[in-house]
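Now for one record:
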Amino acid sequence: FGAAPFRLSSLGYDSVLLTIRIMRDWPMGAAFPEDRLKDRGGFAGIDGAFRFGRDNVAERALEVQEIRGGITVTISPAPSGFER
C-alpha cells in the first residue's frame, strides 16, 4: 500500500511457506507429522533458510550486510539451506 512491509512480515510469509510444504503430503485425518519439522536441511524462507533444532527453537541462515557510505552492501548472501 505504498510503503515497504514491516520487517516482521517476512516471518508470516515463512510460516505460510512451511505450512504449504508440510501439508502437501499430509493425508487428511492423519496426525500432524511433527518429524517433518525436524528436517536438518531446513526450509526455504524469504530471508534465507531456517530450521528447528532439537529444542524446537528456530535457527536462521541470514545474509550478512555492511553499511558503506550510508548504503547497505551484501557481504555474504543467505544460504539456501543447511548442511545435514
Remarks:
- Residues 9-76 form one domain.
- The helical segments are 9-23.
